[in-house]
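Lab intake sheet, docking and co-folding queue.

SAMPLE TYPE: protein with bound small molecule
LIGAND NAME: S-adenosylmethionine
LIGAND FORMAT: SMILES
REQUESTED OUTPUT: full 3D complex as C-alpha cells
PRIORITY: normal
SUBMITTED BY: R.K., bench team

The fields below were copied directly from the construct record.
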Amino acid sequence: MADHEHETDYFEPAGWEERYAGNGEIWSGRPNPQLVAETSGLTPGTALDVGCGEGGDVVWLAQQGWTVTGADFSANGLARAAQHAQQAGVADRTDWWQVDARTFDPAGREFDLVTTHFLHPPEAGMVDVTRRLAGAVAPGGHLLVVGHAPSETFAHLDAAKARAMWHAEDLLPALPDGFEVLVCEDRPRTVEREGRTMDVEDATLLARRPA
Ligand SMILES: C[S@@+](CC[C@H](N)C(=O)[O-])C[C@H]1O[C@@H](n2cnc3c(N)ncnc32)[C@H](O)[C@@H]1O
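RESULT FIELD (auto-filled):
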C-alpha cells in the first residue's frame, strides 16, 4: 500500500476506477514473486486471479500455459488487463470477470489454481474472502493467497488500512476441512517503490484441496 493510496477510497470500486482511468501503468507488469515461487512447479490448468488489477499475474500465468480468468471489481482495471493480455499475445488464454471479492460466489465454477495478490478488504475482511475463494478451488487444486503483513514499513498508514493487513496465519480458519496447508508464513522481501527501498513481508498462504 503506497502513501498516495489515501487520496481516494482504497476499499471501494470508485477509487480504483479513478486510479485505473488515469494515464500510465500503476503496477510493474512483472509477476509477483510469491506467485512465481509457488506455481512454477505446478502443472498448468485453469486459474482464477482475484484482484488482478492490470493483469501482470494473469499474463504471466497464461504465458506458462494456464488458461486464466482475471477478476477485479474495477472495470477500468480489467480493461487494462485485457489490453496487456492482447499485447502479450495471450488473449486467447484469458477471460475476465467483474466481481467484488467481498461477495464473491463461484457460481459452480472451479479452477485448478485460485490466486490473489495484495487484496486488502476492510476490517479483517480477508478471512471471509479467503473462505469464498476456497470454494472455487477444484479437487486437487491449489489456493494461493498473498498480501501485505503488518510491518514497520506501513506504520504511517491510517488505522483503517492497518486493520486491513493480515498475517498468513490469520487466514487459516478460512480453509475448508480437508485442505492441506503447504505454506503459511510472512516472507521478508525488499522492494523499491518511487525510488525508495522498503522492507516488507509477503503474508503467504498456499493450500491444496484434496483430490
Ligand atoms: C493492490 S492492487 C493489486 C493488483 C494485482 N493483484 C497486483 O498484485 O499487481 C489491488 C487490486 O484489487 C482490486 N480490488 C480491491 N478490492 C477488491 C474487491 N473487494 N473485489 C475485487 N477486487 C478488488 C483493485 O481494483 C486492485 O486492482
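REVIEWER NOTE: Strands lie at 46-50, 67-72, 94-98, 111-117, 137-148, 180-193, 196-208.
SIGN-OFF: pending second check by T.M.
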